[in-house]
Automatic annotation (TrEMBL):
It comes from the Bacteria. Keywords: Copper, Metal-binding, Signal. SUPFAM superfamilies: E set domains. Residues 1-27 form the signal peptide. This is Copper resistance protein CopC. Residues 26-126 form the CopC domain. GO terms for biological process: copper ion transport; response to copper ion. Pfam families: CopC. The keyword Signal applies. It is found in: Cell envelope.
Amino acid sequence: MKTLHNLVAAAVVAVATLSAPFAAAHASLKSSNPAANAVLDAAPKEIALTFNEKVEPAFSSITLTGAAGHVLAGAVSDKAKATVDASNPAILRLVLPPLSAGVYTVAWAVAGPDGHRRKGEFTFTVK
Protein backbone atom coordinates (compact mmCIF):
# COMPACT_ATOMS: atom_id res chain seq x y z
CA MET A 1 0.00 0.00 0.00
CA LYS A 2 2.85 2.38 0.83
CA THR A 3 4.42 1.65 -2.56
CA LEU A 4 1.17 2.54 -4.33
CA HIS A 5 0.96 5.78 -2.34
CA ASN A 6 4.55 6.68 -3.28
CA LEU A 7 3.88 5.86 -6.93
CA VAL A 8 0.78 8.09 -7.01
CA ALA A 9 2.64 10.92 -5.27
CA ALA A 10 5.51 10.65 -7.75
CA ALA A 11 3.08 10.73 -10.67
CA VAL A 12 1.37 13.87 -9.31
CA VAL A 13 4.73 15.63 -8.89
CA ALA A 14 5.80 14.62 -12.40
CA VAL A 15 2.59 15.92 -14.00
CA ALA A 16 2.79 19.19 -12.05
CA THR A 17 6.43 19.68 -13.03
CA LEU A 18 5.84 18.97 -16.71
CA SER A 19 2.74 21.13 -17.00
CA ALA A 20 4.17 24.20 -15.20
CA PRO A 21 5.93 25.64 -18.29
CA PHE A 22 2.70 25.41 -20.29
CA ALA A 23 0.67 27.18 -17.62
CA ALA A 24 3.16 30.07 -17.58
CA ALA A 25 3.21 30.34 -21.38
CA HIS A 26 0.49 32.99 -21.67
CA ALA A 27 1.50 36.44 -22.86
CA SER A 28 1.76 38.82 -19.92
CA LEU A 29 2.56 42.53 -19.83
CA LYS A 30 6.16 43.22 -18.79
CA SER A 31 6.25 46.99 -19.26
CA SER A 32 4.46 49.90 -20.86
CA ASN A 33 5.32 53.32 -22.21
CA PRO A 34 3.76 55.39 -20.78
CA ALA A 35 3.93 53.48 -17.53
CA ALA A 36 0.84 52.65 -15.52
CA ASN A 37 -0.20 55.58 -13.30
CA ALA A 38 2.38 57.88 -14.92
CA VAL A 39 1.87 61.64 -14.71
CA LEU A 40 3.32 63.17 -17.87
CA ASP A 41 4.28 66.77 -18.62
CA ALA A 42 3.75 66.18 -22.34
CA ALA A 43 1.33 63.91 -24.16
CA PRO A 44 2.83 60.71 -25.58
CA LYS A 45 2.82 60.19 -29.33
CA GLU A 46 2.28 56.45 -28.98
CA ILE A 47 1.61 53.66 -26.52
CA ALA A 48 4.11 50.79 -26.51
CA LEU A 49 3.35 47.63 -24.57
CA THR A 50 6.04 45.00 -24.09
CA PHE A 51 5.01 41.41 -23.35
CA ASN A 52 7.00 38.39 -22.20
CA GLU A 53 6.51 36.66 -25.56
CA LYS A 54 5.49 37.51 -29.11
CA VAL A 55 1.85 38.44 -29.62
CA GLU A 56 -0.42 37.48 -32.49
CA PRO A 57 -1.31 40.59 -34.53
CA ALA A 58 -4.79 39.38 -35.53
CA PHE A 59 -5.82 38.87 -31.91
CA SER A 60 -4.09 41.81 -30.22
CA SER A 61 -5.38 45.33 -29.63
CA ILE A 62 -4.98 48.54 -27.64
CA THR A 63 -7.81 51.01 -27.02
CA LEU A 64 -7.32 54.47 -25.51
CA THR A 65 -10.26 56.19 -23.83
CA GLY A 66 -10.51 59.63 -22.28
CA ALA A 67 -11.95 60.57 -18.89
CA ALA A 68 -15.49 60.80 -20.28
CA GLY A 69 -15.23 57.27 -21.66
CA HIS A 70 -14.89 58.32 -25.30
CA VAL A 71 -12.65 56.08 -27.41
CA LEU A 72 -9.82 58.19 -28.79
CA ALA A 73 -7.70 55.57 -30.57
CA GLY A 74 -7.62 51.90 -31.34
CA ALA A 75 -11.34 51.23 -31.78
CA VAL A 76 -12.58 49.07 -34.63
CA SER A 77 -13.91 52.12 -36.49
CA ASP A 78 -10.72 54.10 -35.94
CA LYS A 79 -8.08 54.35 -38.65
CA ALA A 80 -5.23 53.94 -36.15
CA LYS A 81 -4.96 50.37 -34.93
CA ALA A 82 -2.37 48.72 -32.74
CA THR A 83 0.43 47.04 -34.63
CA VAL A 84 3.04 44.51 -33.63
CA ASP A 85 6.57 45.90 -33.83
CA ALA A 86 8.32 44.43 -36.90
CA SER A 87 11.69 44.17 -35.15
CA ASN A 88 10.31 42.76 -31.87
CA PRO A 89 7.00 40.84 -32.05
CA ALA A 90 6.64 41.05 -28.26
CA ILE A 91 5.90 44.81 -28.55
CA LEU A 92 2.45 46.14 -29.44
CA ARG A 93 2.23 49.82 -30.47
CA LEU A 94 -0.59 52.31 -30.98
CA VAL A 95 0.03 55.72 -32.57
CA LEU A 96 -1.99 58.36 -30.74
CA PRO A 97 -3.78 61.50 -31.87
CA PRO A 98 -2.81 64.75 -30.12
CA LEU A 99 -3.94 64.51 -26.48
CA SER A 100 -4.85 67.34 -24.15
CA ALA A 101 -4.49 67.40 -20.38
CA GLY A 102 -6.49 64.69 -18.65
CA VAL A 103 -6.67 61.12 -17.44
CA TYR A 104 -6.55 58.36 -20.05
CA THR A 105 -7.26 54.64 -19.83
CA VAL A 106 -5.31 52.11 -21.87
CA ALA A 107 -7.12 48.80 -22.38
CA TRP A 108 -5.22 45.98 -24.04
CA ALA A 109 -5.99 42.46 -25.18
CA VAL A 110 -3.45 40.06 -26.65
CA ALA A 111 -3.06 36.44 -27.62
CA GLY A 112 0.29 34.71 -27.56
CA PRO A 113 1.40 31.79 -29.71
CA ASP A 114 -0.58 29.39 -27.51
CA GLY A 115 -3.81 31.19 -28.49
CA HIS A 116 -4.85 32.12 -24.96
CA ARG A 117 -6.17 35.66 -24.72
CA ARG A 118 -5.11 37.97 -21.89
CA LYS A 119 -6.33 41.48 -21.21
CA GLY A 120 -5.80 44.34 -18.80
CA GLU A 121 -5.92 48.06 -18.40
CA PHE A 122 -4.16 50.95 -16.72
CA THR A 123 -4.34 54.73 -16.62
CA PHE A 124 -1.95 57.61 -17.15
CA THR A 125 -2.36 61.37 -16.76
CA VAL A 126 -1.22 64.22 -18.99
CA LYS A 127 -0.72 67.52 -17.08
